[in-house]
Amino acid sequence: MSENERLSNINPNEIFHVISALQFKHEDLLILFELADKIRNIAETKAGLDFLRTILSHKRAVLYFAQPSTRTYLSFNNACQILGIQTSDMRNVGNSSEAKGESLEDTLETIHSYTDLLIIRHIEENLAEKAAWMYNNSDRPIPVINAGSGPNEHPTQALLDAYTLYRAFKGNIKNKTIAVIGDLKRGRTVRSLIRILNNFEYIKFIFISPIVLKIPEDVKSYLLKNNIVFEESDSLDSCIKTADVFYYTRIQDEYDMQNESKAINYTNLYLNPEYLSKMQENAIILHPLPRRAEIPPDIDKDKRAWYWKQEINGLWIRTALISYIFKIDGYILKYK
Ligand code: NCD
């Protein structure tokens, strides 16, 4: 079964589980962007926050994060709290029964007994999808959100990336040239970003990486099949003056087999004042974070640096996503 077919089994017509960026249609994205803007606006006052906090106060969520996380964890936890959802954490697998040899299936079964929503990050590829299948076949299906699974997908990062483009370009995402730089081979955010941006017309990608970290063949097939224009390069020279977006990523050395990243030279692609001086005035610089040396902190002051805003956008779009899953979006949009 193809990935698309598998996903359509999980989610026939609506967003319930969030497993892949492929699930989001253009209309879902527009609803989510509008909802995120509305929620951040409501949250500016105490009365607004008090309103939001009552909406899902009868729900519980488990945040099962078996891989390191700062932003994704904090933003999901806070998104739940904004909507009144009570959260429990499983962050250190050493403290759970997995350390006693419990199978992942039994762990998922146990989580199901205690929650109305599972938000999951795990090194095991497709574990979110597996949980969604299990829960669909139970007497009480509950939604599962993939918060990053192996090197495969990170759909909610893609949502916040797209939401950031929406805000940066005042709603007009189409017709943009997006330079994606770094570890294109193993970065899950890049895979999900490409899939979500397939909802917008005339997007052109320029993939820039050290040779050994080039975009994988299956992603290229996806781009070709969907008629998405792209180029590959190992230098920024060809696009530094023309790209609208510079999406940086770090080297994903946690997936190394034998410390092979140590031999990779990425420094020629690091952002520096010379590159910055050549960029368009209204270009934007994104990074899913955490960063290493590819974007020096000095650049944070530049008005084109959008990565800290991107982080905040993650909170509001994840709050919007949870609202959408629990079908309270219409209720929130009516708030005056
Ligand atoms: C990303 C991830 O986990 O894939 N981080 C995040 O969620 N913002 C990117 C990364 O770790 O490099």
Give me a quick take on this structure.
This protein has helices at 3-10, 26-42, 46-55, 71-82, 104-114, 127-136, 155-168, 188-197, 217-225, 273-278, 307-325, 329-333, and strands spanning 60-65, 86-90, 117-122, 144-149, 177-181, 204-208, 229-233, 245-248, 284-286. The chain has 336 residues and is α/β, with parallel strands linked by helices. The chain folds into two domains: 3-152 and 314-333, 3-Layer(aba) Sandwich (Rossmann fold); 155-312, Rossmann fold.
Give a written overview of the molecule.
The chain has 336 residues and is an alpha/beta fold. It folds into two domains: 3-152 and 314-333, Rossmann fold; 155-312, Aspartate/ornithine carbamoyltransferase (Rossmann fold, 3-Layer(aba) Sandwich), CATH 3.40.50. It contains twelve helices and nine strands. Strands 7-6-5-8-9 form a five-stranded parallel sheet, with no helix packed on it. Helix 7 (155-168) crosses helix 8 and helix 7 packs across helix 11 (307-325). The protein is globular and about 55 Å long. The N and C termini lie far apart (46 Å). N-carbamoyl-L-aspartate binds at residues 71-72, 148, 154, 157, 188-189, 249-250, 288-290.
